[in-house]
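Worked problem 6 (solution included).
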Amino acid sequence: MFGIIRPCRHRLSERLQTSWTAHLCGLCLALRDDHGQLARTATNYDGLIISVLVEAQAAREDSSWRRTAGPCPLRGMRTASVAKGEGARLAAAVSLALASVKIRDHVDDRDGVFARRPVAAGARVVTRRWDRQSAGSASTVGFDTAVLLDAASRQGELERTLRPGGSVLLVTEPTETATSAAFAHTAVIAGRPGNAAPLAEAGRLFGRLAHLLDAAEDQSADAASGAWNPLTATGTDRAEAERLCRDAVHGIRLALGEVELADRALVHVLLAHETERAVDRVFGARHAASCRTGHDATGEHPHDAPPREAPPGAPVPPWVPQGPGFTPPGQKPPNPRNLLAGCAVWALMACTCQLLCCEHNDPFSREPRKGFCERHDCCDCPDCCDCCNCCDGCGDCCSCCDGCDGCDCGCDC
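Solution. The predicted structure is:
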């Protein structure tokens, strides 16, 4: 999964984490249903923002935007409520079209395995099929993917004709145009035509940000391999690239302020805060988004507080492992398994990715364990409270965080 938006589970409230996962799984399943199993490799974090925007603008009941998906290895073979409808289909079509463009670029640049003729030939077949499929599914929701493919073709022409010392924004223009069109169409699907203009502006700046961050991340590797890089080709130093990125983040926040949303919380977290964290990840943090005191009103740090017990009879949240082999929260685990039974359960859990991706009970001791991915988390979030978590109820933490005890999100919007 690729993308500049990588929200950490530590920075999302339970409600927002559930919603984020629903959109991620909804995008993956929409790709599978509309385009086949191979298309699921186009699942990406940035693409699901399209689905999030559509749902956030539509004043409909949550049930109309959700369906129950079957067990999946990446969810520990558990069912889940996932996003459905036109938003997920548009996100799938856009993701597939952009994945096709990305693969075609790798083939043209002869990157890695794509330098081999059999691999390149197979990749071209896949990209042509994905172009047709994305165009067909996008047309069902009224979107023309030709704007994305045209932008991709102009991208190559701009890179070939760009002179040293030219503006790097000339190179980002095709990406800006493509993302602007996709963002604006979410207003059409949601029945909010008045949102089209500010969303187009937010999409344009998001495309600029994504292009510049990708170029900054790859600059050293491109220099080592001799690949073309927009920052190097235009002579843009990293300080100027960072300034353009931070200006883009600020512009996205201003544009979002003009968008009428039925539920602003997740959109605000992803586009107003995760974009800034993406810039900090590439260029280094400009300021520390940390608590002023690091402690709550009781004198304890929020992460040091004991876990809250669910009241008796309360439903188990969807992210809590449950089902055969799992111990209900608050209950003492049963006796350990013997070696043979433990090995059998370990093999089953390994084959279903539970050992990697999910909280689970140890196959031998039955004690609660975190998945490998969680134990080796690459999370860059600070060990402190998060502005949008403590203001989850209002959905606009830039205006309400003043009321949170000791929480400073460092937001300058």
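Discussion: The chain has a mean pLDDT of 78.
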